[in-house]
TrEMBL record:
GO terms for molecular function: kinase activity. Keywords: Kinase, Transferase. This is Glycerate kinase. Belongs to the glycerate kinase type-1 family. Signal peptide: none annotated. The keyword Kinase applies. It comes from the Bacteria. It holds the Pfam family Gly_kinase.
Length: 380
């Protein structure tokens, strides 16, 4: 065993990507002391992306005061990469589900992305010309309308009055006006990093798939889905931009759609951009094994999350991949066709998340121990 690359995502809500690296590294170094360990904690555009970029390429952390998911003031960090030309903004920093949970208020129909727009505006005003906007972990379902409003986009009701829409009021939008959009957006590049391909609406859309996790009832899901469909229809009529069937438009409560329609953004897989930045293909050239993982490995993982991106590149290089997950769910087996060699579940007791999270570190350590013992047996 020459070199082992540790390149996991976080186990959301229980372990950071760096902590996963530490646990896997401790176990594998004990069994394979001759191997060089290369730690590359990652994120795919969701929660943890800011820290992952700073860890990968350096830069500085900036903290701003902006609106939280329900209008309260929060301190939201973002990253400025070396050269001060590019900012990495994680929407969960001010519109994330953990913030809503901490406030004891899960209400995607009333949560806003307004603070995300304030963060983008701050980065542009201090001279950044490229924004990498990381989607994931949102508490919202406003189609990015709040973010756009903070950047000067006007949403008008049937009486011509301007308002800031949330999920519950998207149906009230009669017209969208871009004339007042912040001048600093001109000439700036906005790339939206997202790890899913879900469309805006329908059975695989933002509301149907993700709003229940944010606290929406079945009736609320239907209302939120209808609101997003209405938003898309008005955007197409007023702006000439069609986002209704755009892959990734449903990310972060429809933020993917709003960023494209209102801010001229492009959607791209976050994992590929980050793997390029850390020189992952070069690291693979003399590697014997890649270790990766995330909290839940399932069908969504194959749609562009960390494990899928890592596995595709490792397969080209002929390097085996072991993926560790808190749990392994329906659809995970598609990853075998993408380059994953084996998957190992850490939670053997099938516990509810609230019970599994406190023991995640111990469970992952045991899973890594099992994997090492099997590999040692195979080498005899």
């Amino acid at each position: 065993m020459r070199k082992i690359i540790l390149v996991p995502d976080s186990f959301k809500g229980s372990l950071t990507a760096a902590e996963v690296c530490d646990i896997l590294g401790e176990v594998f170094s004990r069994h394979f002391p001759e191997a060089e360990l290369v730690r590359v904690p990652l994120a795919d555009g969701g929660e943890g992306s800011t820290a992952a970029f700073l860890s990968a390429v350096g830069g500085e952390r900036r903290v701003v005061r902006v609106q939280g998911p329900f209008g309260e003031e929060v301190r939201a960090p973002y990253a400025i990469l070396p050269g001060k030309h590019t900012a990495v903004i994680e929407m969960a920093a001010c519109a994330g589900l953990p913030l809503a949970q901490a406030a004891g208020r899960l209400d995607p129909g009333r949560a806003t992305t307004y603070g995300v727009g304030q963060m983008i505006l701050d980065a542009l005003q201090i001279g950044c010309r490229e924004i990498l906007l990381c989607l994931g972990g949102s508490a919202t379902n406003d189609g990015g309308a709040g973010c756009a409003a903070a950047l000067g986009v006007r949403f008008l009701d049937s009486s011509g009055r301007s308002f800031v829409p949330v999920g519950d009021t998207l149906q009230n939008i009669a017209h969208i006006d871009l004339l007042g959009r912040a001048p600093v957006l001109a000439g700036a590049t906005l790339k939206v990093l997202c790890d899913i391909k879900n469309p805006l609406c329908g059975p695989r859309g933002a509301a149907a798939v993700f709003a229940p996790q944010k606290g929406a009832s079945p009736d609320e899901v239907l209302r939120l889905d209808a609101g997003l469909a209405h938003l898309a229809a008005v955007a197409e009529a007023d702006l000439g931009v069609s986002v209704i069937n755009l892959p990734g438009a449903g990310a972060a409560g429809g933020m993917g759609a709003g960023a494209v329609a209102f801010l001229g953004a492009t959607l791209c897989p976050g994992i590929d951009l980050l793997l390029d930045l850390v020189g992952f293909d070069g690291l693979l050239k003399d590697a014997s094994l890649v270790l990766t993982g995330e909290g839940c490995i399932d069908g969504q993982t194959a749609q562009g999350k960390v494990i899928a991106g890592v596995a595709r590149r490792a397969r080209v290089a002929g390097v085996p991949v072991i993926a560790f997950g808190g749990v392994i769910g329906e659809g995970a087996w598609a990853l075998y066709d993408m380059g994953v060699t084996a998957m190992v579940a850490a939670d053997r007791a099938a516990l509810p998340f609230e019970q599994a999270a406190p023991r995640a570190a111990a469970d992952l350590r045991r899973a890594a121990e099992d994997a090492c013992r099997l590999m040692t047996l195979n080498a005899r």
